[in-house]
Amino acid sequence: MAAQIPTEALKELKVAEGTQPAGQAGNSANGHAEDAHDGEDSEDEAEEPSTTGAAKKKKKRKPKKKKKAPTSQTEPPRVMVSQLFPNKTYPKGEEVEYLNDNAYRTTNEEKRHLDNLNSEFLADYREAAEVHRQVRQYAQKVIKPGQTLTEIAETIEDSVRALTGHQGLEEGDAHIAGMGFPCGLSLNHCAAHYTPNAGNKMVLQQNDVMKVDFGVHVNGKIVDSAFTMAFEPKYDNLLQAVREATNAGVREAGIDARVGEIGGVIQEVMESFEVEIDGTTYPVKSIRNLTGHTILPYSIHGTKAVPIVKSNDQTKMEEGDVFAIETFGSTGNGYVRDDGEVSHYAKVGDVQHVDLRLSSAKALLNVINKNFGTLPFCRRYLDRLGQEKYLLGLNSLVQNDIVEAYPPLCDKKGSYTAQYEHTILIRPTVKEVISRGEDY
């Protein structure tokens, strides 16, 4: 989920000139209930009368077969990831050893001990990452032009909830695990923060470029990862530019890396590409007022940002940080503005007590606190919980700075934007690209 540079801060940001070339649900409870009878489940010794009146025969029923644990995922994904990986043995992400002054960390006993202390943290993150991989890989197979954005979003979100085992309909359930933030489906010149509200009839077209950005969380550990889908080869260079720029940012990230310098590398890679669309050649530009960001427990946007253009920001990445490295490329101005109907919201984490006059706002805030906390949500999530006529109360919460609204972020109309994103853990011993998969 994209972080945006405040307009005031953007004015003070020194931006280098970029080159612009010319041309997944089984319930184990049932299994345990059956196991209690397995092996000694004889019929109440059904008696058969003997022709001699002698001893009666006992006829035993064959033991019931135990249900086998699932070993593979279904389509659509509905098997909980925790069933596929017993004892929390989830796959690791891509582990990259530190270099130069930090090379000692890989074998250092103290650093390895610190890593071992984080076993629960890593298990939660790896579970969330595996859910993300399985869901997105299924989504990439089944998403086709002609589907509505609502169908696509629900395909992804229903799968995430099934694979984490938390449907989010009971009070507080979504706070345990499930969606880390709403599934963004931003088309063409819209770069981020668009998901359909109730009644949306928008249909994915053959000529569209769609950014698919969704988060998965387990106990507040959020994996934020995104990719772009296009169905026409004319957009290939645009997608390649952004994918390679994101990978460059991931490579440069690590302990003591300065975020402004990472932004410079991202920009250099991004803007070395151009794309020809319908006879016109466009330079691919980094969207300068969008950034990557740190991720905190139950908070998608932390305190540090990773620009995607060169800047003088000397902030360092540090041991224990979790970063979302995301880049956006555009054939337009390389600058986004708020545009369109809001769908994404999140409760502000450090909000002070506010006396709310509207009873609807008070009631809605109670729903938000119990179900989402500071995790982002959208209007469709409130609809799922049975909330009605909540817009007045929601707007009141926004106006009182209790809830933050995230409008869609768009470049100029007629342009095309793309996005790729990975979550990385700056561990004591290695950098782990937790969201890495075979797809990207």
Automatic annotation (TrEMBL):
Keywords assigned by UniProt, alphabetized: Aminopeptidase, Cytoplasm, Hydrolase, Metal-binding, Protease
Q: Which residues bind substrate?
A: H193, H301
> GO biological process: what's one of them?
proteolysis
Stretches of Basic residues bias are at 55-69
Q: What is stated as this protein's family in its record?
A: Belongs to the peptidase M24A family. Methionine aminopeptidase eukaryotic type 2 subfamily.
> Gene3D superfamilies from the entry?
Creatinase/methionine aminopeptidase superfamily, Winged helix-like DNA-binding domain superfamily/Winged helix DNA-binding domain
Asked if the keyword Cytoplasm belongs to this entry, the reply reads yes
- Substrates-to-products reaction catalysed: Release of N-terminal amino acids, preferentially methionine, from peptides and arylamides
Q: Which spans of this chain does the record mark as coiled coil? A: none
InterPro entries, A to Z: Creatinase/aminopeptidase-like, Met_Aminopeptidase_Type2, Pept_M24, Pept_M24_MAP, Pept_M24A_MAP2, Pept_M24A_MAP2_BS, WH-like_DNA-bd_sf, WH_DNA-bd_sf
Check the record and name the SUPFAM superfamilies matching this protein.
Creatinase/aminopeptidase, Winged helix' DNA-binding domain
Q: Where is the composition biased (Acidic residues)?
A: 37-48
Cofactor binding mode and count: Binds 2 divalent metal cations per subunit. Has a high-affinity and a low affinity metal-binding site. The true nature of the physiological cofactor is under debate. The enzyme is active with cobalt, zinc, manganese or divalent iron ions. Most likely, methionine aminopeptidases function as mononuclear Fe(2+)-metalloproteases under physiological conditions, and the catalytically relevant metal-binding site has been assigned to the histidine-containing high-affinity site.
Record protein name field: Methionine aminopeptidase 2
- Any matching Pfam family: Peptidase_M24
Claim: rRNA-binding is one of the keywords in the record:
no
Q: Superkingdom, according to UniProt?
A: Eukaryota
User: Any idea where the Peptidase M24 domain is?
Assistant: 125-340
- The residues that hold a divalent metal cation 1 are D213, D224, E421
Q: What species was this sequence derived from?
A: Hypocrea virens (strain Gv29-8 / FGSC 10586) (Gliocladium virens)
Q: Report residues binding a divalent metal cation 2.
A: D224, H293, E326, E421
* Protein role: Cotranslationally removes the N-terminal methionine from nascent proteins. The N-terminal methionine is often cleaved when the second residue in the primary sequence is small and uncharged (Met-Ala-, Cys, Gly, Pro, Ser, Thr, or Val).
Q: Which GO terms describe its cellular component?
A: cytoplasm
Q: What is its main location?
A: cytoplasm
Q: What's an example of a GO molecular-function annotation for this chain?
A: metalloaminopeptidase activity
